[in-house]
Amino acid sequence: MITTADEELLRRAIAVAAHAVTLGDAPYGSLLAGPDGAILVEAHNTVQRDNDISAHPELKLARWAARELDPETAAHTTMYTSCQPCGMCTGGIVRSGLGRVVYALATDQLVELNPASGAWPAVAQDGPALFDEARVPIDAFYRP
């Protein structure tokens, strides 16, 4: 359930996205709010500026949370973001231990506004293969 406090923090994430546009960056913004609701850190999309396909604000903040927050605090921290996180960012968010994500635009709404946002081709994946060989470094690391 999205509360009035959530809406205020979402408005701030949208403002971060709007500010990104004034800097020549893509219009996506995010922030993390700690357990007490205070803003911990903000970020916007710098994919073009940094020439880095992973420079989404959600992934930047997930990485920050994994580095800077203890697991208990991360679990009670919420990410507010102007658009629903993509698959790449969702993976980072899960691994960071963040407890909640609140977003403004859903992916399908974003694609309606900007069809190019949904134009990613499928990538073929083949496997699994070479189990006995591939397990050697895994066993060496996890079962010393």
From TrEMBL:
Matches recorded under SUPFAM superfamilies: Cytidine deaminase-like (SSF53927)
Stored CDD domains: nucleoside_deaminase
Pfam families to which the protein is assigned, alphabetical: dCMP_cyt_deam_1 (PF00383)
Residue ranges constituting the CMP/dCMP-type deaminase domain according to the UniProt record: 4-121
Gene3D superfamilies: Cytidine Deaminase, domain 2
A GO molecular-function descriptor: catalytic activity
Superkingdom of source: Bacteria
Protein name: Nucleoside deaminase
UniProt organism field: Micromonospora musae
